[in-house]
Write a structure and sequence with these properties.
Blueprint: E1 2-4, E2 8-13, H1 20-25, E3 30-37, E4 43-51, E5 53-60, E6 63-69, E7 87-91, E8 97-101, E9 117-121, E10 125-130, E11 135-141, E12 151-153, E13 156-160, E14 164-169, E15 175-180, E16 191-193, E17 196-201, E18 213-218, E19 224-229, E20 236-242, E21 245-250, E22 253-258
Antiparallel strand pairs: 1-2, 2-3, 3-4, 5-6, 6-7, 7-8, 9-10, 10-11, 12-13, 13-14, 14-15, 16-17, 17-18, 18-19, 20-21, 21-22
Length: 265
C-alpha cells in the first residue's frame, strides 16, 4: 500500500492474512513502513509494526493512520471489524508513534489530524462522522444490505446496494433520489466526476435485468444524461474518471470512454 502527502511518500509492506493457512505460515512477519521524500526519493525513516496485515492507511494533518489485523478481520464497516489490533498513528515527519487507538480500525480515516466529514456504510446503516472528533453527525438505516463505501460529491452522498443507487443529502442523510437497477462499477465506492455519477446498469428499454453498460447520471437529479454499452459489462472490475474521460477495466481490456460533448485535446 502507498500513502502520499505533499512531502512524504510512504510504502507499506506486510504479509497477507486472507486465509487461515496464510495466518499460520506468516504469523511472525511484521508490517513495515518506508518513507521517502516525495520530490527527491531520499529515504527519510523506517518503522516496523507488529505481526499483522495492513488493511487500510490514511494520511491527514501530518499524520499517517495504519489499520492492521493479525487474524480474521471480519466484515468492513461493522462494529466487530478488525477490532483485535489498534489503529496506529505515525508522525509523517519522522515515523514516530504518536498514538495508538484501541479498537479503532473500523474507520481508519478518523484519527488525530483528520478533518472534515467521512461517510461510511455497514450492512445495516449509513453514517456521517466528524473525522476529527469521531462524533456521529447522522445515522440512518440502509434500505438494503450494503457494505460499499458511500461517495460524497456536490453536497450529496452516493450510496450503492444490491437494489440500486441512491443520493442522500450530505447534511441530513435524507434521500434526494434513488435509481433501482443501477450499481457501482466494480466493488469500490460509487464513481463520480464532473457532476456525474458513473454506474453500471441494464439495457435501455430492456427487462431491467443484467448489466448492459455504463450510465452517466446527473448527480443532482439522478437522470441519465448518456449511456454506453460495455463488452463484457458483467466483468467491469475497476473504473476511474478525470478530465472528461472514464477508464474502465472490463475482463482483460482497458477501455477509455469520452462522454458526448466533451472537449477533445
Amino acid at each position: 500500500m502507498f500513502t502520499v502527502s505533499d512531502d512524504v511518500t510512504c510504502l507499506f509492506t506486510f504479509a497477507p492474512y486472507t486465509t487461515g493457512w496464510e495466518r499460520r505460515t506468516t504469523s511472525d512477519l511484521p508490517w513495515r513502513a518506508y518513507a521517502f521524500d516525495s520530490r527527491t526519493g531520499e529515504e527519510l525513516w523506517f518503522h516496523e509494526g507488529r505481526a499483522a496485515e495492513v488493511i487500510a492507511v490514511d494520511e491527514a494533518g501530518g499524520r499517517i493512520a495504519v489499520a492492521s489485523s493479525s487474524r480474521d478481520s471480519g466484515v468492513p464497516g461493522t462494529d466487530q471489524y478488525a477490532q483485535d489490533d489498534p489503529l496506529v498513528v505515525l508522525k509523517a515527519s519522522d515515523g514516530a508513534v504518536e498514538r495508538q487507538i484501541a479498537r479503532g480500525a473500523r474507520r481508519p480515516q478518523a484519527h488525530p489530524g483528520a478533518k472534515g466529514v467521512g461517510y461510511f456504510a455497514s450492512e445495516e446503516r449509513i453514517e456521517a462522522m466528524d473525522l476529527a472528533t469521531r462524533r456521529i453527525l447522522w445515522s440512518r438505516p440502509a434500505d438494503t444490505v450494503t457494505d460499499i463505501a458511500p461517495r460524497a460529491t456536490g453536497g450529496l452522498v452516493l450510496a450503492s446496494s444490491s437494489e440500486g443507487i441512491e443520493a442522500l443529502d450530505a447534511d441530513t442523510g435524507r434521500t434526494r433520489w434513488s435509481r433501482p437497477g443501477y450499481r457501482e462499477i466494480g466493488s469500490g465506492a460509487p464513481l463520480a466526476s464532473d457532476g456525474l455519477a458513473l454506474v453500471s446498469g441494464p439495457e435501455p428499454g430492456g427487462s431491467g435485468e443484467g448489466t448492459w453498460g455504463m450510465y452517466a447520471l446527473d448527480v443532482r437529479t439522478g437522470d441519465a444524461t448518456w449511456a454506453v454499452p460495455i463488452e463484457p459489462a458483467s466483468d467491469m472490475s475497476l473504473a476511474t474518471a478525470h478530465d472528461g474521460l472514464v477508464h474502465i477495466c472490463a475482463g482483460r481490456t482497458l477501455l477509455t470512454v469520452r462522454g458526448p460533448g466533451e472537449r477533445r485535446t
